[in-house]
Design goal:
heterodimer, A: alpha/beta, Rossmann fold, 2 domains, 10-stranded mixed β-sheet, 9 helices, 26% strand, B: mainly alpha, 10 helices, transmembrane (chain B), membrane (chain B)
């Protein structure tokens, strides 16, 4: 069942005397419970796509539908994890308050909020840091808080905009595993935007490769790796290397300006 | 040891200046520069035998009333102007004009409308204090982080939560900076408003002393004003530190 449906999305930024067509014609669908990664060369309009899907940006034409309803503003049931973890947490609130704030706005009772916050913080391994302020935590931990906030929100779909681009390699591996395990355990739908080819293959059930700007979908690659993945064994599978090479080749083609055959 | 050093750092220069003043005027027979000992001698008698409640408290009361009003007005309007680009575009030229008018020049005008009573003095204080608070609030609101704004939108924070959890705390460092400037402007205007026309107050009393050649008493008034300024800024600092305690220590 399709949960998130993007049809013929086009986005033109109106500049001073010069219009920039960032996204030309994007059509993609994400099924309920799927984990899909979107990769593309830098400047491919990945963030534009994500902002349109999140309802933060209005497309010039085409449409985005979540659960059958057109997205015109940030829809309920959608959580976003931004790349800039340091700027997406409220520095004047504690970790607990950060996770709890959206739940308050949802109108949940005190007991429910407490339970959801505790569970989410435990799930990301931050049960002991509920009363810290974000700036007292490392970058990786801050991004965990942002993930906990998204998880506690119980979204039907979670959008992630290059969430691990700004953390170190070891932390990144841990966080990738965290996303996989949360996705499997909670049955969420995840749309994960990244520029990292390895990351996209390791995480996703399906990788959508974008062309360069103005953006279209170049190819969709099904990732037929075992469901249980770990950093060591999965990444050394021959199939992983094949998929990785395939996506890599596509990205190179995209960079050279190759467009999908109509 | 550390506390001692801090104490010396804090009080060293004031003590030195007082000592200099003391020594420089100890044998002074200049009528306008009485010995500091004489000034100090009349301090208690001048201010703590009735004038504290008759003059000091009314002055400080008017200052606090005007300052409080300016805070509410400045922050309220500032949030509105900072949040609505249209409002800002319309109001900016007018605001620049009013801000450029030195508030003391409003005293004669305000006297015509509001008389010479407490209302006039409070209005004068408000008319000066409000600008740094207002303009800093506008800038602070505009500078609230974009990613944080997006986050608030994505999680569908309502109007109230956006104001209380996003805009006001986000702008609070700038608001505090404006409020600090506003406070010192307020003290100046408190005194000035009482110099034009008043029946009591610190500014009124100092001018009164000067006109009746009560020179040591006049000096005590100036010293008292300085002390009140220091006390208020200390209180402000404590409040600011509590308000902004979430910032990296």
């Amino acid at each position: 069942m399709t949960l998130l449906d993007v049809r013929h999305l086009r986005k033109v930024y109106q500049g001073r005397g010069r219009d920039v067509e960032a996204v030309r014609d994007l059509t993609l669908a994400v099924g309920a419970g799927e984990l899909v990664c979107v990769v593309g060369p830098s400047g491919a309009g990945k963030t534009t796509l994500l902002r349109c899907v999140a309802g933060l940006l209005e497309g010039t034409s085409g449409e985005v539908r979540l659960d059958g309803r057109p997205v015109v503003g940030p829809p309920p049931g959608m959580a976003v994890v931004f790349q800039e973890y340091g700027r997406s947490l409220f520095p004047w609130l504690t970790v607990r308050q950060n996770v709890e704030l959206p739940l308050k706005e949802k109108g949940l009772g005190k007991e429910d909020r407490r339970r959801l916050v505790d569970e989410a913080l435990a799930a990301v391994g931050l049960a002991g840091d509920a009363d810290a302020h974000p700036w007292q935590l490392s970058g990786g931990m801050q991004q965990r808080v942002a993930i906990a906030r998204a998880v506690a929100y119980e979204p039907s779909v979670m959008l992630m905009d290059e969430p691990f681009a700004a953390v170190d390699a070891q932390t990144r591996a841990d966080l990738e595993d965290l996303v996989r395990s949360l996705w499997k355990r909670l049955g969420m739908t995840v749309l994960f935007v990244t520029h990292d080819i390895d990351e996209s293959v390791y995480l996703a059930e399906r990788v959508i490769v974008l062309s360069n700007s103005p953006t279209e979908v170049l190819e969709e690659v099904a990732v037929d790796l075992p469901a249980t993945r770990d950093q060591l064994t999965t990444r050394s599978l021959p199939r992983f290397a094949e998929l990785r090479a395939h996506v890599y080749k596509l990205i190179q083609q995209a960079k050279n300006g190759q467009r999908p055959v109509a | 040891m550390n506390a001692l050093r801090k104490g010396v750092q804090l009080l060293g220069l004031p003590v030195l200046l007082i000592a200099l003043w003391w020594v420089a005027t100890v044998n002074s027979d200049n009528f306008f520069w009485p010995p500091l000992s004489e000034i100090a001698g009349t301090f208690r008698e001048t201010w703590f035998t009735g004038r504290f409640t008759a003059d000091v408290l009314p002055s400080v009361g008017r200052l606090l009333a005007g300052y409080g009003l300016a805070l509410v007005l400045g922050v309220g309007l500032g949030v509105a102007i900072g949040s609505l680009p249209v409002l800002r575009a319309v109001l900016e030229p007018v605001l620049e004009f009013f801000r450029a008018i030195p508030p003391p020049v409003l005293v004669p005008v305000l006297m015509l409308f509001a008389g010479i009573g407490t209302t006039m003095k409070i209005l004068v204080i408000v008319s000066g204090c409000v600008w740094p608070i207002l303009l800093n609030t506008v800038e602070g609101v505009r500078a609230v982080d974009e990613v944080l704004r997006d986050t608030a939108r994505c999680y569908r924070l309502g109007r109230r939560a956006r104001l209380l959890r996003l805009v006001l705390p986000g702008a609070s460092p700038q608001i505090c900076a404006g409020a600090r400037q506003g406070l010192s402007v307020g003290i100046i205007l408190m005194v000035i408003s009482e110099m034009f026309a008043a029946g009591n107050g610190l500014g009124f009393t100092v001018v009164q002393f000067q006109r009746t050649f009560a020179v040591p008493q006049m000096w005590t008034g100036i010293i008292l004003l300085g002390l009140i300024g220091v006390l208020l800024s200390l209180i402000f600092r404590v409040a600011e530190a509590r308000l902004l305690s979430w910032r990296n220590e």
